[in-house]
Every structure is written in structure tokens, then in C-alpha cells.
Specification:
This protein is α/β, with parallel strands linked by helices and 467 residues long. Helices cover 49% and strands 12% of the residues. A five-stranded parallel beta sheet has the order 2-1-3-4-5, sandwiched between helices. The chain is elongated and about 100 Å long.
Length: 467
């Protein structure tokens, strides 16, 4: 099983004492999950190394032979100003620490300081490095107005400007190890977007998806973290959880808005510290698995209601990806309909039917509460019933009509804004007819369906208007 490296570019440890280098490496990996580490014992080799190798951070000892840490710090800051340096020293000297900070050091620690403080400082700076790299990538993408990894997005059919902006953001956050939260209505394609994050960030690693809706805390913990032998009745051997199965790749947690508060505490620890406990074990395990989460619920509202932890809510907002509903990107219908028709025809063993020209016009009048999933079901239903060459629009009309019958009262309950003078019945009818014809792009059959009247009745009204 591949082990993911963190950070992407290594942390460079510079000290002439090999035991200290080995000890510090173990501390960083054990307590911080930092396993991409380079060691250097000779201060003279640091600058040639930096000329060939990108690093995320340098931990630099001050007292070294040949070239002192303080002299080396000045050269690093001058030649590699984008690389943060944490200075380490054996004794606490306020004057030296102030001098190093003024010279450009990101932080200063005494070697005898508590491990947690040192590791916390290293992780804090690495998070800043990740954010800077992400912002730089996002800025480059926006300025270039193009995607660098177009193949990663091939499964998501769209020509929407809104979706292109989402794609650019996904490319930017791919370099970050922070969790990604994908929000959007049911059926918009959140799992497909999560797979894009996986393809961009950890394409060679495993993809593991878990729907956590309805899982109580014990089942959630066992599913994600696994258990040790004897943890509960029937646990006759150790079992690894999904987080371990996804090591080196991506773990996708769907419907996280349904998690109970106890499970939310464990999820927060996993996201915050990269730590978890298998059921029945007192030995903490570390992971650097990429975690992507999704929900169709309003987490802010759940948090205000006390059903979702505030600290977890803000932790998940580090990388927030909002997928717009289909009704806000109806220009995608032009690509989605033929794509789904071809897919349905292949699976049903039928030839691809000819699409009537007015089908897109009809679909563009619909609000799609079930989004792309609903559109796909509509297309499959139509293709399964299809007999001739031209696809019948009858099943589409029926579904749209049935849905609109239930949705109209709700839409009107929000209230209408009327002018100071109320329009007459005749004026109101005429306004409705004009709007229906506009939405139907002049197609009388579709406009009549929108108005809930027959085509002859609409035609009579239109002729009356002309006379």
C-alpha cells in the first residue's frame, strides 16, 4: 500500500549532530505526520542542495562548524527568499533569537523545548506554505483562464462558466492536504467532483467512498477506523478501517451532515491532527490520507441548531466547493442531453434516437429539483420506451407536468410583488401568455403545457391578440 508523502516538497533538517537529526525526524513523523524529510549534516552543502531541490521548510541549527547557522540563514534568505526557515539552538538567547527573526527567520525554538510546541510550529508554517501555493495556483489559473489538467474533468460534461470557475478552484486546491468539502443539492454530481479532486491530487492511490448517513457512532468508528481483536463480541481478529484502506489515496465521506455529535468529535480529530483510534485500541494511529467530504444539507443551519459542531464546521470551510444546481446552468443541457442519450442507448442496446429540435426548449422550461440525476432518469425512461427514429417527448412532458403541479403552490407561497395598480384579469392572462411563449421560444405546444391549457386554447388566445 503506497504511503503518501507530506509535505509535497520535503522539510530540510540541517544539523551537524546525526543523533539529533534522527531524533527530530522521528518526532516530526510520529507527532506531526511529516514523513517527507531531508537531512543535511554539513552546512556547506545546503545551498547547492537548494539549487537542485525544492523544499517546503528548513529547520536550521545555529551552532555548526564550517558555516554557522546565522551566516547560512542570511544566504538562504537572500538566495531563496520564498523558503521559510525555523532556527534551532541549544540555549535560550534572547538577543540571538531577535537577530535571527530580524534576519528573516520564520520562527525560533530552543532544542529542549517541548515536542508539541516545536511540531505545532512546524505544522503551522507548513499550512501557510500550502495556502500560499494554493493561492498562487488559483491566481495563475484565473489569469491564464485555462485548465492545466483537462483530462481530469472529462467525465463531467459542462460548458457552464460557473462550473469552469469550480474546475479552476479544484486545480488550485489539489496541492493542499487540507480537507475538501463539496456542497450542493442532491443529484448535482458531488461524488463525480470528489473523484476529480482524487484524480488531481492522488491519481495513483486508492479511491474509497463511504456514505455515513444513518451510521451510529460505533458503526461509524468501526467502518472508518477499524478494530482490534476482542474489541467487541465477534471481533475475532484485527480489521483495518476505510481510512487505512485509503492510505496514499482519497477517502470520500458522503452525507456528513447526518453524523451524530459523538462521531463529529472523532472526525474533527482525524481532520485536525491526522489521528484516530481503532475500536478497542489505546494506540493512536496517524494518517495523511486525502479526505474529501460532501453534503446536500445546510451545515451552517445545522450548526446554529446545535446539530453540527461549530469547530468542525469552521474546519471544513478551509476548502469549500459549491456545485451550482442544473437550473442555474441550463446551457449544459445542450451537451448533457446527447451525452445521456448515447449512454442510455448503449446500456439498453438500442440505436441512439434522433432528438426532436424542441426537446431542449421544453427541458429549459423545467427547474430540475433532482438536478442531473433527474435528467438522467428522464432520458433513460424516454429511451427505454423509444420505438421509432425520433425520440418521443411524451414522457418528458408527463414528468415535467406532474412535477410542476406539486411545485407551483410552493413557488407562489413565497409571495408575488405587485405594482401599485393591480393588473386586470385580461392583462394578467396576457402577461402569462407572453412569458410562456418567451420561455418556450415560440413553441405553442410547450407554451400551452406551461400554462396548463390545450394548444387550440392557446392558439385562440394568440389569434385574438392579433385581431
Amino acid at each position: 500500500m503506497a504511503k503518501s508523502l507530506y509535505p509535497v516538497n520535503p522539510v530540510l533538517l540541517v544539523d551537524d549532530e546525526r543523533p539529533w537529526l534522527r531524533s527530530l525526524s522521528l518526532v516530526l513523523e510520529r507527532s506531526g505526520g511529516i514523513n517527507n524529510i531531508l537531512q543535511c549534516q554539513d552546512s556547506r552543502e545546503v545551498l547547492p542542495l537548494l539549487a537542485e531541490q525544492k523544499v517546503s521548510l528548513i529547520l536550521l541549527d545555529l551552532t555548526m562548524p564550517y558555516l554557522s547557522g546565522e551566516d547560512l540563514l542570511g544566504q538562504i534568505v537572500e538566495q531563496h527568499p520564498g523558503v521559510p526557515v525555523i532556527v534551532l539552538t541549544g540555549i535560550n538567547q534572547v538577543e540571538v533569537s531577535v537577530r535571527c527573526i530580524k534576519a528573516g527567520a520564520a520562527d525560533y525554538y530552543v532544542k529542549t523545548v517541548e515536542e508539541d510546541r516545536l511540531v505545532g510550529g512546524v505544522k503551522r508554517i507548513l499550512r501557510l506554505v500550502e495556502m500560499e501555493r494554493e493561492n498562487r495556483t488559483l491566481k495563475d489559473n484565473l489569469l491564464n483562464d485555462e485548465l492545466k489538467n483537462t483530462d481530469a474533468f472529462s467525465e463531467l460534461v459542462t460548458q457552464s462558466v460557473k462550473m469552469k470557475a469550480v474546475f479552476q478552484y479544484l486545480e488550485a486546491l489539489a496541492v493542499s492536504h487540507q480537507p475538501v468539502l463539496i456542497v450542493g443539492e442532491s443529484g448535482v454530481g458531488k461524488e463525480l467532483v470528489a473523484k476529480i479532486v482524487h484524480t488531481l491530487a492522488t491519481p495513483q492511490g486508492p479511491w474509497v467512498a463511504v456514505n455515513v448517513a444513518g451510521l451510529d457512532d460505533n458503526v461509524f468508528s468501526d467502518t472508518l477506523f477499524g478494530h482490534v481483536k476482542g474489541a467487541f463480541t465477534g471481533a475475532d481478529q484485527n480489521r483495518s478501517g476505510m481510512i487505512e484502506e485509503a492510505e496514499g489515496g482519497t477517502l470520500f465521506l458522503d452525507e456528513i451532515g447526518d453524523l451524530c455529535l459523538t462521531s463529529q468529535v472523532k472526525l474533527l480529530r482525524l481532520l485536525q491532527e491526522g489521528e484516530y483510534l481503532p475500536l478497542g485500541s489505546d494506540r493512536v494511529k496517524k494518517t495523511r490520507t486525502r479526505i474529501v467530504l460532501a453534503t446536500n444539507q445546510d451545515l451552517r443551519r445545522l450548526q446554529e441548531q446545535g446539530r453540527f459542531r461549530k469547530d468542525l464546521y469552521y474546519r471544513l470551510n478551509t476548502h469549500l466547493v459549491n456545485i451550482p444546481p442544473l437550473r442555474e446552468r441550463k446551457e449544459d443541457l445542450e451537451l448533457l442531453v446527447p451525452h445521456l442519450l448515447a449512454k442510455a442507448a448503449q446500456e439498453l442496446g438500442k440505436p441512439i434516437p434522433t432528438t426532436p429540435p424542441e426537446l431542449l426548449t421544453l427541458l429549459s422550461t423545467y427547474h430540475f429539483p433532482g438536478n442531473i440525476r433527474e435528467l438522467e432518469a428522464m432520458v433513460y425512461d424516454a429511451v427505454s420506451r423509444h420505438q421509432g427514429k425520433v425520440l418521443s417527448m411524451e414522457s418528458f412532458r408527463r414528468i415535467i407536468s406532474d412535477s410542476d403541479e406539486h411545485s407551483l403552490p410552493e413557488a407562489f407561497s413565497a409571495g408575488l410583488v405587485f405594482p401599485d395598480r393591480l393588473p386586470t384579469i385580461e392583462e394578467t392572462v396576457q402577461l402569462l401568455i407572453d412569458e410562456a411563449m418567451k420561455r418556450a421560444d415560440g413553441n405553442q405546444s410547450i407554451a400551452a403545457g406551461l400554462l396548463g391549457i390545450s394548444r387550440p386554447a392557446l392558439n385562440k388566445r394568440l389569434n385574438k391578440e392579433k385581431s
